[in-house]
Amino acid sequence: MTHQHPEPPQLFGPEQVADPYPAYAELRAQAPVCPVKLPDGVETWFVTGYDQADRALAHPGLSKDPASVREMLRKAGSPFFTEEYDKFNAHMLNADPPEHTRLRQPVSRAFTPRRVEKVRPRVERLADELLAAMAAAGTAECDLLEAYARPLPLPVICELMGVPGADGDQVMEWSEALFSPPGTFPITPAEAGARLGEYVTGLVEGRQAALAAGTEDPEAAEDLIGQLIRNETLSHQELLSTVLLVLLTGHSSTSDLIGNAVVALLAHPEQLELFKSSPELTDAAVDELMRYDTSVFRATIRIAAEDVDLGSAVVPQGSLVGVVLGAANRDPERFPDPDRLDLTRTDRANLALGQGVHYCLGSALARLVAGVALRKLFTRFPDLALVGPADGQEWMNPGSGVGRALLRLPVLLEGKSA
To answer: CA 401, 402, 406: angle at the middle one, nearest 5?
Structure first.
């Protein structure tokens, strides 16, 4: 094997923001594991083949602990490693076993499939309320992200966690700014991260004070924050970091998934008709929609703690590694005709939710919310149509980030697309 690699194709231009898959297919065919330079200038080894990605996600030689690269990421301008935000990085996503196991276990109890299924009535009720409000607005056109995809997951997460519902809009505004390139919102990502940190600190410390004073609502003991503040295995900073992590990741990727899925279905009328006529396909459809256009396009960064052989290349020790989930999910070596949306596809082992010990903790909740959202939407508005062509939608430029998300999603509620 050799470390000599061809010059990668353009991966970060406007064309690739709108449709990243052709460029990543070219890169995967050239070298499924190779170094590329991110927009922030940081060199990262991209893993784009399915087998190589599957191996990388579970490889013990690829560490999630950012200690060795913290200063590099800070200098590159990462909003997650500013001096103000870095103290909130003491969570499971930045840890390896056995620390990862210790940090993940207290949270995992809140997201078992059985416990998640209990929130289904709440999700269905909220979806119905949002759709009724859209219908009552009396306008033929609306931004589906603003009216439906974004407001649906967050109240569910807030309720599970014990975050006041009245704070949801502000939390959503800050979290969107944190995950977006500078200039997208009135505040910078770093400022948004600082405000989120202050908010979570005040929320958790207020709950701790109420518990100590004996004034906490007895029902609050059952929510996630209530459980975590009673957990003696977490330090104070680990507690704050964990609450912030779950709050941020629990809604944004699901909102983005709903938007991406709506575009995919409306761009494939025959698959949409199959979806509308086959409720039993809901779970399989959500999996295929995640494979087809995942909202977490690239896994968060890993660091090679040693030379790591991923099958087609050896990643040198000390290198940053980005597993490109979106590219791996379109690998023709794993998925026949991978660029075709097929809700009846039997191979559902895509990597949209990760793999190994870092497999998405909220996977059951994300699947449930997305399934309910799509089923309710196309039942209430069966003639829903995009404003303009599917390939003309506006996508957020992720910069060096990991997500794939629409900026807006204008739709006609009663069809007759332009």
So the answer is: 90
